[in-house]
Amino acid sequence: MVVVYPCSTLFFFFKMLNSIDEVVRSRMGRTSRRRRKKRQKERSSRSLSHLEPYVNLARWMRKQGFTGAPLCPTTFVGTGRGLAATKTIKSNDLLVALPKRFLITADTVLQSYLGDYIVRSKLHLTPLQAVCIFLVSELWFSHTSVEPQKITPCLDSVIPDLMHYNFNSFFDTPSICSQKDSTGASRPLQAGFWKPYLFVLPNSYSCPAFFTQQLCDTLPPVLSHHATEQTSFVQVAFRSAWPFITSIQPLFTRPVSSIFTFRAFLWAWGTVNTRSVYMQPHPAPLLTGGTTGDFALAPLLDLLNHSPTAQVAAGYNEQRGCYEVRTLSPCERWKQAFIAYGDHSNHQLLLEYGFVTSPNPYSLLPLHAEDELAVFVANRLEKSMQKNLMALVERGLDRDMTIGAGGLSWNLQVVLRALALKPHHRISFGDVVVGRSVPTSMQAMATKLALQLCEQLVNDRRQRLAKVPHGERRHEATNSVITLLTEELEILQQCLSLPNVGVQNSL
């Protein structure tokens, strides 16, 4: 028996089904979006190898004879851009071998179109100045041959997950290198040759020389002092190189004053300072110092990030004519491959490379007698203490004063004992600074000074941390400063928790 429902009943029935379907779909949509956002947060890496600048870099290196490496440009959470291993790398495996032709050194500049101008110039450039001028020149020649909107990679664009991208095509079988003519003689590279490499370099860097004044004011005094010296060094290098820069005007169709700005020179200096590797210097009479300098820029290799726990062996192999990096510890597939820049504290890393690592086993809080220690002594209003500090500075005994999680350095303890020296103590100033035993009252006074000094530094770091911008979208440099100040607070608090603030009873 067939039941016939009225049209109105069927209408409401289907309307109810549509409403339920819309509710289910909307809920599934929200759930899907939430799951998608959660997956995106959990992703620790994303491939960059499909982006045009990295594709061009791979093709260019392959064309020039690069045999490839088990590495892929990738952006990682926490460290940013780096290199992921495309296969499991065992201990003592060769990570990358970069032929000499890919290294940018002062010798590269001498063999380029700038070489004749350097020969004719009466001004002897330093290797650093020569390479900086060459980078700005190459960047200008590279820009003139492409559309402006195509030169900067968009690292914030949506890119596929690392685990779903095929990396096997990033480096294929190499073609024949064409850096020599038919006679086999070396020929200078044409202007703009380094374009694929230059277009994957950052537009700016996060060294203190690139900081705003507001951010510089939040740096610890010692680091702020070094940052000022760093900026002054770059300014002096730019001014002293200007006569040579004006002499190469015939190479350009625009005034060199519009090409070689201080901002452009600062970018070139930042490139060399943060991305170069060590190279054995070679004779170069035309340059200041008579050598090519001890640095080289290495495409692809400079994408390797630093880790204080990484174990690698790196250096130029004269026999093979390659700069080689060999890992001494295994690396799993799709994990980030690291190298170690050295046993650097976060002060050194931020100053020279523009980043910090946390945790860092080499982190220390350095002090200068003319900065925070001078303020500490001035607040005591004791003439004997100020006199002793001046004597320490005159004798150069105020160096290597640091505070670590394990306590105060030997030099800082000696300085505090010297500051605690009073006229009535039966011990000479010279005996104190060489580390001889001191009276119990002096030892107690030195411990008290250490406690007061650490408390003063804690208050100072908290005030500086409060001045740092804490917006939702912070620059990398801002994050580095926050991490550095937070780390110093932790070091001081650990030091304060030690017996006698880490001051030893006898040296």
TrEMBL record:
Region (Disordered): 28-48
Biased composition (Basic residues): 28-41
InterPro entries found in the cross-reference section: SET_dom_sf, SETD3_SETD6_MTase, SETD4_SET
Domain of life: Eukaryota
SUPFAM superfamilies: SET domain (SSF82199)
GO MF assignments: protein-lysine N-methyltransferase activity
PANTHER family, sorted: SET DOMAIN-CONTAINING PROTEIN 4, UNCHARACTERIZED PUTATIVE METHYLTRANSFERASE
Name of the protein this chain belongs to: SET domain containing 4
Organism: Eptatretus burgeri (Inshore hagfish)
